[in-house]
Amino acid sequence: MLAxxxxxxxxxxxxxxxxxxxxxxxxxxxxxxxxxxxAKEAAEFAATDAWEEDGSTSPIDWLRFNCxxxxxxxxxxxxxxEAMNQLSxxxxxxxxxxxxxxxxxxxxxxxxxxxxxxxxxxLLEKARENSPGKFHYICHHYRHAADRKxxxxxxxxxxxIRKLTIxxxxxxxxxxxxxxDPVGGAALITAIVPLAQKSGAYDDRTxxxxxxxxxxxxxxxxxxxxxxxxxxxxxxxxxxxGAAAAEMEFTLPVSSTTIExxxxxxxxxxxxLNSESTVxxxxxxxxxxxxxxxxxxxxxxxxxxxxxxxxxxSWSAAxxxxxxxxxxxxxxxxxxxxxxxxxxxxxxxxxxxxxGDDGRMLTIPPTVTFGPPARGPD
Length: 378
Hints:
This protein is of the alpha+beta class. About 45% of the residues lie in helices and about 15% in strands.
């Protein structure tokens, strides 16, 4: 065990500002080295049955209780330790103080996500140039470029854990608790932030109170339409292989398929980049489908056009049967109303829609890919 005097917090009142800055850098470096060593031992510990002997359900569970870590931190330590052989150059960079353990954690998670497509050299260069927070975003773009299908599948999984519980107490107070997927969360934050600003010098409400009032205002119809800013490359919009993800305010990067859905009939402000990340177009925040056409569409369809769905037009979006990215036109013959759930099924869920000459709609489920047939006896 370390002697208490070696780690006990000491005063820096006698130090100059330069000495304070240097001392913090040195301590952060030492901490990273210790965490790196801990990660290696944690991975080796996870490979034994030592945690089972104590009755823990997993190595992460044992670390959480015995090392005072959260489940996420414990999992990250094990993940880094397990990936050290694959991340030898990054481990060396950490030991030289060129990057931090926070960078290494995202490297390990990215390596695990993309498998054989992982290129340590490219990401290590980015890690050296960027803060851990910025590097976290860069890793999401890298994962989208390396394996868009898996990236989209992970985002679809996040959609599945969404939930909202609303319950009433005896005194009439309403309790609200929930989880939103990244896109849904970004839409909510975008709508609430402007309404939750302080309104004058005598506004003594806390931030939590202002956000609660903003949510009630939205529910009462007093808020303006949320306008989401999207930054994307042409390659991302076209869904080309190797393209980075798109950027949205208030959330992590999202897939090109999600942006395609939002572009159907959402209020978005677009910033379009070329392959050199130079801005080549800034679009106004507006509906792709005009309001007069939206009203005509609501009269024609009446509700969501998905067979068996009766969600009203006010809860539905205008969907391009042939998307405008693919040359589809924005006219009534190429538009149908789809509720939020069915609109997402078409874009992120890979369902297909076919319109007959008589206007009837046929829905086709995603193609199911089966493995090779079982081999018979020799």
